[in-house]
Specification:
EC number: 5.6.2.4
Number of helices: 25
Number of strands: 21
Catalytic activity: ATP + H2O = ADP + phosphate + H(+); Couples ATP hydrolysis with the unwinding of duplex DNA by translocating in the 3'-5' direction
Family: Belongs to the helicase family. RecG subfamily.
Keywords: ATP-binding, DNA damage, DNA recombination, DNA repair, DNA-binding, Helicase, Hydrolase, Isomerase, Nucleotide-binding
CATH architecture of the largest domain: 3-Layer(aba) Sandwich
CATH topology of the largest domain: Rossmann fold
Strand order of the largest sheet: 11-12-10-13-14-9-15
Number of domains: 4
Organism: Massilia yuzhufengensis
Length: 687
Amino acid sequence: MPATKTTSAPKTIESKLARLGLRTDMDLVLHLPMRYEDETKVVSIRDACLRGLQTWQVEGVVVKNEITYKPRRQLLVQIADESGELQLRFMNYYGSQVKQMAEGVRIRARGELKHGFFGAEMVHPAYKVINEGAPLPTALTPVYPSGEGLSQTILRRAVTDAMKRIDWRDTLPNAFLSRLQLWDFEPSVRLLHYPPADVDEYALTERSHPAWTRMKFDELLAQQLSLKRAQRARREKGAPQLRAVGALSDAFLGALPFALTGAQQRVVKEIRADLVEGFPMQRLLQGDVGSGKTVVSALAAAQAIDSGYQAALMAPTEILAEQHFRKIAAWMEPLGVRVAWLTGSLKKKDKDAAKEVIESGEAHLVIGTHALIQDTVQFAKLGLVIVDEQHRFGVGQRLTLRNKGSDGLVPHQLMMSATPIPRTLAMTYYADLEVSVIDELPPGRSPIVTRAIDQNRRDEVIERVHAAAQEGRQVYWVCPLIEESEVLQLQTATETFETLAEALPDLVVGLVHGRMKPLEKQAIMDAFTAGDVHVLVATTVIEVGVDVPNASLMVIEHAERFGLSQLHQLRGRVGRGSAASVCLLLYQSPLGQVAKQRLLTMRETTDGFEIARRDLEIRGPGEFLGARQSGEAMLRFADLEADQWIVDKAREVAQYLLDNSERPEYMAIIDAHLTRWLGGREEFLRV
């Protein structure tokens, strides 16, 4: 069932459709409406005016058309039918619309009817010019997710045309459909694009209609098939067998100034067992903030080095990469391990020198940022790739690093995340990964008390900061990342820094933000780590990886602008020593419902897994997993919480099909289904 290209669309429209991910006819057919408009009925103007305050469709002849300039320039069009008159008001309009709605023209308009100062009116209604007696649609009108320059008319036409060209054959046999009590594919899709006027609108809107159930099942089945098949394909690939847990691993463990927790020991065992296999490990290491993931990853690297291979650790920011470098190099270099450092900000000479020791194999362990995945970086013998905060990297980036193995072998991959992923989500989105969890914090971590405080009490907070510093404690003051404007974000941090420096003249206040040069940034961080800076004003560059045990007070400004996982990550910068720690969430009232839920969650729990569960409830899986950053094929139709029963069925069917895939008829089902739902995008699910 080949995916036919949308070749009939004009080039500009084709490129706009492609930006929405609509490259083939099947993409268009599966671009399902987000809502519907009922244009199957017309009510009289009199009835609409009597009932008011909801959306109606009326029809009438234009009796007056004028442009007025009070209180601002606008187009007023009066239409009338036998029962009365109604005003249509357009604040933004084109000259062509003025001509289109000339007096005497018949118009069908649909919009919310309001009672304004001059009587009943619709503001910016949808309208069309019609002839008298023009037939009404017999189906609800679909409204599609759209993009810049793509009107609903263009999308509707593109979808309708694509539906004439595709192969409608069902990918699932009738026996499956009847056993699963699912509708056939074609009637499901046709109903969703053109619902008849008598359809159960509630079931359609709530996506509980049998047609929606079929779409959700198909989407989940494609995802599960792809992930499980990727897992099998991975097991057929060759990977270095890192069998040696030798002198370096033993010396490293012996040199650590602390004992591993039970959870760390369990996870190390799981990783070690994977690394000796002849197929690539693909393991996600989850652990709450401060649970000790770095030590576990360093032990995995030691096993690779003991076995004669190189290891690479990639982190999303220079600050985080540098934290890893300093910590791991301090552990490993005394044991004779050469640790190389590679980031985009290095001078050309230093970059070239780093690339040279990586390519020659002199560097046993390489730590850095995205710079590691450049084409010019060649490894002598890469055996293990460690990716920290893996959700912050695009799929393509993770794939590039994995492809840097040698001798046709694929390096083992260990991904780390301090954003715990709820079990349901992990089973569905990471069906091709093994998941390890460090569910225990090292002893001696102090509990963190969290309070939400209105911005109006800012002076009290500054007094508290002063008192903490007088007691010898250090303080973080975090300013928000304002997505719309880096400049504005910088200004917020700079202004806060100036305010605090003025209010606390006897303290040393430092400032760190994303636009500073790496060396400047590092100098401030070093001064803070050494205790020479009392208060560190920062943007979210300190979100992960910063470890200063003496810092016991965290102030997060405009906490309502942060997501739950970010708030939890930031809070994790304190509570790393033995002193009681406090996190103050400064918020600007009034708070929206979602912001209230977030701040309440932060006050109630410090458990990252519970926070992740609530975050999933608040945001849904697409947002939660960072679809925009990761580029992963997110679920468009299924809801993992509400549709758990469909998830379970899809998982079972995927397993059954793959278990029987040596039979040609089952292989044909798998191929047809994946082609229909994923086209050429399957590779991205395998990282």
